[in-house]
Recover the amino acids of this structure.
């Protein structure tokens, strides 16, 4: 076997040094009754060439949206990935190392995490950020749990237009523990019903605000903050903002509207869709909450010779030290994807990232305007949006999607069909359309005319 | 023609290392940033002059700079490459970090993960366009069911701890659904990994610690004493974190079942058992695997990993949906989970890119290769044990499984701590073993060689440990001040916690 | 522009330090008349994403043999490439360095070249090998020129079944310089006509022997050596062997039949076909000829502290020192491909490489036997062969190839159509078929039955 | 919070660096080899028991071992990674190796070169299956014709020297075909690169050296003296290897044409001219480009490169076939070269993988980006010139093009040689410039920064050179014994040439 490098002679020499005759003898502590006598019911090992042919054949049975003109978003975006990201991530020095427990031989990983924490904190307009969580959904769920930890009655006020997959994970984390989820309906324009929200926010705990929300709508976070501040301080819930990072090139960041914690999904910052993962959960917070947030943290310090260096810090919050009192059970996180985000944000840089965000905003509105003019089509919600919007089609969204697929276009998400029962104000005609920086002007115009043609029948 | 190294005996020259490089530290990208520089160029687009305020409410438009660095592509590449070579890593030298199974990461797995046919798949695409990715998940699930002997595997968890958490939620859901909410106690051996108790608490249950016996294994009598009708489950790591197989596991599992509780297996140490013994056959009800340990997916500087769980019996109905089904025609599709199942714990279907690498690894090894992994992991650990047990204090006298734990008590008399030995090993070009874990071994040094190292590498590690043992007597100062050859030495962790400088403070020079 | 990192301020500061107002001023030494006033007639620069789409679109217009079941060889083989080759070649440390002129900061490249030289020398059964040539054809041409350098009348005896592309390059290098090419015909069985060869070898110079020859036939090199030794020493030409490296796992190496120089093409040792290059020319020789052979050489030595290290050596043969008296004008060579060969041969190793050669031999004969039984088909030449052979088909080879392509099979090379007039004993019905280690038993059998079906019509 | 480096003043500890690592050398793979080990596993096949002698004449079957190393995959990867980090390289730090144009190698070029749609193409496939690769060659040819101002480009040559050789063959073929075989003399300026004269001789012609003027340029009077009816051509490097533009080039070319000879341009220094001036407009008949210099294709540790030639006028008919043609329908195909053309100089169609990267680079830069290359390459070189001309001896007083050449004569008085300065620069983490070339500058130090470096990197280089200049006076010994910080120091090149150990001598341990 290529990865076990022992020859028969090596094994004999080692058995002699150990003082046993056969390797089998080393398994004597395993009772006979549970020792396998037959090989596992799995095919025997095969060569690289044969395995690659198998895996490529499996790949060939996919029809990736990435190879088509895709308007499918809903939290996972078909964004550009600079070549430098793959060039850096494919270095053995980064992908074969593990958690930097021994700082002297891990300064590479530690400094990239320190720079990742700085970029995420600045993006979110917050004081600091952790080293990464599994994904955006678990980041939201764990932070909501932690911010309500120890409170008398643990409440999380959740807007109706929260991403249904994020809602499902939050509900799972809240289930069977004394954490109550208090739903808040949408206003007719698809934004949070601020009055209902304020009413629901009288019992402390946490208020979750997703910006933009699942329909791509930009919530009036300034108005939400204002309404929240009318609640007496003792009962006022902490604001947890759940953001789509690319929108932060255009929209006021969570730090600007008093969020205690900001979470998000980093997939749109240089990661391939890869059928749902690995992605990277972002967590940023105000300095006051640093000891509450989950996950690893890297801090700067100096060594015995006065040299600047980086170490894992505040590990006392973590499971390997605080065990059952840890803020989270997370050990292995999404470090390599955090590195990809770091390289991505450095490659775009301040001006590139803002241009990316601006570009998506402008292109999405160009498409929305064009669609809005098509007979039988209309924007489902009149509210402002960033780069995603719901289109009310003259025919079921599923039909539009099927027909568009034949022309190499992934038209978007049939929300009602994919998430039945999640959204009362959405029906089978509603199509969620996302516009990324990959979509050229020609593709936007062609898509609008395609919808026009498909609308007619 | 191996030339001997003759170090010239001359007075050391002053200023040999130029001041600019003496420091060896790398400024952050923020310090290198220059306003106006940029690496990546976006595709052409029209509408640069459309102000955001024309499309968004002005008060919601971000003002002021974000503070992202501004560098060119060549400078960016040099920055990350300069940082990368500061890392120890598996493709550099021996990395015997106990319990982490730092085995070789096959390069074919990376080639498969680069295929656009997988990278370009959106998680919400129609089933008919996702047949390839669905079959990858199906094939991996089948293989892991066979490796673990469990009836059904769920690929959702993004790491081992995430799998522990899901399992505890499923157990919690079971007892609530069957009218026993009071069964909320989970027994945790004192040798268990910190994620075990943390996962139990996150799932809303309580923990009680079970002291291990002198032999490092479960103390069956103490266990019996704890087993009452409040106990929901026990979390057993087998082989234990001291590297020994729980010989009485079948009996233990039967005892726990008799008490109406479930038996969970922390499968982090499966590298010792794969192809040799199966948790399902030992009576475990539910367990997790760590694909970034046993199945060679890369550790990535701390992640990503994957922690699929294997389930048997009554708990299967709590496995979160959606589940993959195959119809008569061999077509794959997502199907719903039964009512009352635990909800999803991941935004989509788990760390697919890692699951893809694990399936590639399973196919490359096959049934014969998988068995050879455990055989040689255990052989290598026992070889190190045999070679070190005279110079160092091995706590348990019996052959070990895939890792051997040394006790620091043996060298306390020289004033040397386990941390010092770890630091000194760096000067020998070797990544230190895990230290001070498991907690039941005083000043532990947990050495896991994995199956991938050559005999020569194991001998070099033995030579280094024996050399360090000699230094303890002849020149302890060289150990106490170690490491000497690394770019930074003994960083001040206390200062880091006090200063809490978690982001680069200065302004990005713009 | 992403690769020029200067800001306008940087440029201003530099112009001030230089003492000129505009960059344009630095071009004053270029006469106005030849200074471009218009931008080049090339499209303006575009983003990575747009350029990658362009290049991928160009790629999509290819129908690579590598994606089909290919029996097309003729000197370029569809061999397996271990994943480690790409993993090592994609390290910046190897592919962005240049010729190791400064040894203290190039020991990585120098030691890999030293190990490459060792493996090629051992493969060829010779004393030493150089660091690489452009490809097999120029290696043969340059060595033939050098071995006849200074001789009264420079002669190169060349067998008829030498690869036509190698012959073309040799003829080019020989043209317009006083180097005479003396052709030697094939015997009826496709091997060198040894009598004619011996007759042609009475005037010194060089005898080229290609093993296997273009038809895949294994020449009787022992017999050739014997015949050559009957020629009086004074007139006896030096033997230059031109080998296909994979055959050296099965066949006696050039060192065993008295070759002065052995050359070959290293493409089949882990390089992708890549439409003809970059490949790597191999050159090995006996110690006596070390000062004659072209190209760079790396030698072992020690440093001031007695440490072992490697340096470029015998540079006095090379152009940057001997200028017009150099053995060759080569400066930039095929170093990165030599590294690929080194990683490939280390990955297969002694047993793997011999098994590869054995596998190709056996599979080729399995296919040849199956084809031989097909009605209307026959092996064109009865001589022994390694992994390539000529099939006399019942219909023009072109027709067979066209029909096979429709079923995803590249049947081989229609020799007469592709190299008209090069081979008198070959006509339009003759198909050159190569078998590599990629071809499974099922593919071999399916190909034979496909030929059977195509033969009928 | 930039901490100052306080080196502890303690007696240096003995044995700080373990003996095993002190040496720093890496054994060869042959010394690491163990019989029976193997990394790569071949696909399954039947017929292992068929002895070669059953299919081949026994006397032609190889006997005995070859001596290839036997190692496992993990050990193999660690071996090459350990070697790789010993290299200086462009993605590590400044690499101002004059005349080699060590500019940044864009990563998109490597992504394109990894596409199977190109890697899998066999050179002898039918035209209809090769439309993509043929169009790549067609588009690159068109672009390079535009950049050089030449009428037709041939992409066949595998490097600059190979292009020089083809050009000389074409010139030789022309004079033979037109009845002037006696015109076999090529004038070579004394500042030319060694490949120029070597290429002329290989093409069967003679060379005569033309001394440069005091201004570092062609001496027109001396040129006139050499121009007679035996002269076939002159090879001119423009800008010259001393980094100056041949201001009288138009006049020179006219003179040469008047004498019935051709003018060849060594295009290695085109990085100074791309988008600014075109050889075709200067009257050159034929030239070569180095794609691994001007067009950023990676230098690969010494290669591969590509040296396409541009041709104008009567010499076009000698360009080797086959040539790419496009029919009315836009289909591409190979067409024959006219009779009498020079034959092929490559087994197939040149280093396609490198040509592919060059086309990607052309598209990324475009007309605007290409111009900016020359502007900033010349700006950077002149900036270094301005910053160093006071401390070092710059031979020519005028602004330079893309490289600046310093004279070693300036510091001879300190007993320091150019080689010593080069070695000392290594301690500053900078790859030395080209040394002792061109020959017409005494103890030359040829510095080519390229357009890709930041101002900070240029300033760091200037600081290092000024620091070394100070060391010449205050502490010359530190320069004479440099380098101090590299893994080996001042290797004995004489011993290497005497011993001629060109292969690992020992047996592979089997
Ligand atoms: C014994 C044991 N259990 C559980 C875990 C947690 O696994 P993960 O890091 O994948 O969350 C680890 C990880 O190091 C471990 O060693
Ligand atoms: C001025 C000059 N001419 C010609 C050459 C030869 O080019 P190549 O190395 O591509 O053969 C070089 C290469 O360094 C050079 O610098």
């Amino acid at each position: 076997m290529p990865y076990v490098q022992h020859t028969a002679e090596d094994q004999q020499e080692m058995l002699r040094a150990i003082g046993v005759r056969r390797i089998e003898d080393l398994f004597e502590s395993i009772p006979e009754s549970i020792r396998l006598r037959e090989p596992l019911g799995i095919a025997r090992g095969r060569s690289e060439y044969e395995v690659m042919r198998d895996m490529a054949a499996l790949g060939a049975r996919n029809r990736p949206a990435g190879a088509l003109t895709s308007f499918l978003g809903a939290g996972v975006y078909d964004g550009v990935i600079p070549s430098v990201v793959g060039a850096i991530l494919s270095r053995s020095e980064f992908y074969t190392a593990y958690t930097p427990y021994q700082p002297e031989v891990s300064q590479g990983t530690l400094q990239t995490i320190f720079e990742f924490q700085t970029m995420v904190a600045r993006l979110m307009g917050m004081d600091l950020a952790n080293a990464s969580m599994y994904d955006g959904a678990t980041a939201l769920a764990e932070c909501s749990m932690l911010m309500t930890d120890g409170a008398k009655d643990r409440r999380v006020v959740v807007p109706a237009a929260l991403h249904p997959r994020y809602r499902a994970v939050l509900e799972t984390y809240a289930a069977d523990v004394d954490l109550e989820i208090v739903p808040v309906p949408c206003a007719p324009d698809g934004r949070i019903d601020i009055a209902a929200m304020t009413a629901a926010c009288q019992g402390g705990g946490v208020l979750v605000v997703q910006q933009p929300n699942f329909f791509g709508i930009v919530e009036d976070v300034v108005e939400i903050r204002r309404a929240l501040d009318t609640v007496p301080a003792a009962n006022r819930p902490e604001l947890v903002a759940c953001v789509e990072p690319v929108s932060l090139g255009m929209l006021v960041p969570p730090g600007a509207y008093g969020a205690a914690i900001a979470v998000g999904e980093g997939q749109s910052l240089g990661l391939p869709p890869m059928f749902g993962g690995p992605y990277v959960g972002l967590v940023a917070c105000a300095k006051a909450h640093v000891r509450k947030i989950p996950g690893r943290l890297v801090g700067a310090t100096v060594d015995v010779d006065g040299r600047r260096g980086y170490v894992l810090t505040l590990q006392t919050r973590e499971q390997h030290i605080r065990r059952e009192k840890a803020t989270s059970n997370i050990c292995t996180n999404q470090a390599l994807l955090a590195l990809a985000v770091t390289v991505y944000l450095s490659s775009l840089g301040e001006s590139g990232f803002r241009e990316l965000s601006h570009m998506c905003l402008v292109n999405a509105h160009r498409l929305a305007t064009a669609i809005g003019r098509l007979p039988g089509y209309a924007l489902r919600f009149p509210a402002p949006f960033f780069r995603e919007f719901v289109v009310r089609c003259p025919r079921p969204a599923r039909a539009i999607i099927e027909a568009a697929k034949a022309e190499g276009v992934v038209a978007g998400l049939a929300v009602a069909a994919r998430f039945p029962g999640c959204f009362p104000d959405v029906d089978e005609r509603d199509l969620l359309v996302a516009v990324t920086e990959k979509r050229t002007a020609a593709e936007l115009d062609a898509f609008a005319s395609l919808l026009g043609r498909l609308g007619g029948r | 023609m191996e030339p001997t190294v003759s170090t010239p005996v001359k007075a050391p020259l002053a200023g040999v290392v130029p001041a600019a490089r003496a420091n060896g530290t790398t400024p952050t990208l923020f310090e290198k940033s220059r306003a106006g520089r940029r690496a990546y160029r976006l595709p052409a687009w029209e509408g640069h002059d459309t102000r955001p305020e024309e499309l968004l409410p002005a008060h919601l438009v971000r003002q002021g700079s974000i503070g992202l660095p501004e560098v060119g592509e060549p400078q960016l590449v040099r920055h990350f490459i300069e940082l990368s070579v500061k890392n120890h890593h598996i493709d550099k030298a021996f990395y015997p970090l106990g319990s982490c199974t730092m085995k070789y990461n096959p390069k074919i797995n990376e080639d498969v993960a680069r295929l656009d046919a997988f990278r370009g798949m959106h998680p919400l695409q129609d089933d008919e366009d996702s047949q390839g990715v669905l079959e990858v998940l199906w094939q991996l699930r089948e293989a892991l069911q066979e490796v673990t002997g469990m009836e059904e595997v769920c690929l959702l968890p993004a790491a081992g701890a995430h799998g522990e958490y899901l399992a505890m939620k499923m157990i919690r859901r079971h007892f609530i659904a069957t009218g026993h909410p009071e069964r909320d106690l989970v027994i945790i051996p004192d040798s268990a990994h910190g994620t075990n108790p943390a996962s139990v608490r996150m799932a809303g249950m309580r923990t009680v610690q079970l002291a291990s016996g002198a032999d490092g294994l479960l103390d069956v009598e103490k266990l019996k004493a704890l087993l009452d009708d409040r106990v929901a489950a026990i979390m057993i790591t087998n082989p234990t974190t001291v590297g020994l197989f729980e010989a009485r596991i079948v009996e233990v599992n039967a005892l726990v079942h008799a008490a109406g509780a479930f038996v969970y297996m922390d499968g982090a140490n499966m590298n010792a058992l794969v192809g040799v013994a199966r948790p399902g056959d030992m009576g475990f009800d539910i367990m997790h695997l760590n694909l970034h340990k046993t199945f060679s997916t890369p550790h990535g500087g701390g992640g990503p990993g994957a922690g699929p769980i294997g389930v048997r019996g009554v708990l299967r109905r709590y496995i979160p949906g959606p589940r993959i089904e195959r119809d008569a025609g061999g077509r794959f599709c997502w199907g719903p989970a039964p009512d009352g199942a635990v909800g999803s714990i991941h935004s989509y279907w788990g760390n697919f890119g890692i699951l893809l690498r694990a399936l590639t690894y399973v196919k490359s090894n096959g049934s014969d290769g998988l068995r050879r992994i455990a055989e040689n992991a255990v052989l290598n650990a026992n070889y190190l044990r045999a070679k070190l047990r005279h110079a160092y204090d091995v706590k348990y006298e019996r052959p070990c499984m895939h890792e051997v734990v040394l006790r620091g008590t043996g060298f306390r008399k020289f004033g040397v701590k386990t941390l010092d030995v770890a630091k000194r090993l760096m000067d020998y070009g070797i990544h230190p073993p895990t230290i001070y874990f498991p907690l039941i071994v005083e000043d532990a040094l947990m050495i896991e060689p994995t199956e991938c190292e050559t005999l020569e590498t194991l001998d070099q590690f033995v030579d280094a440990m024996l050399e360090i043992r000699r230094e303890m007597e002849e020149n302890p100062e060289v150990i106490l001040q170690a490491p000497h050859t690394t770019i930074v030495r003994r960083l001040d962790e206390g200062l880091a916690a006090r200063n809490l400088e978690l982001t680069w403070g200065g302004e990005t020079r713009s």
Chain A touches chain B through 208 residues (CB under 8 Å). The pocket of pyridoxal-5'-phosphate (ligand 2) is lined by residues C 331-332; D 99-100, 159-161, 193, 195, 237, 241, 266, 268, 290, 305, 307 (CB under 6 Å).
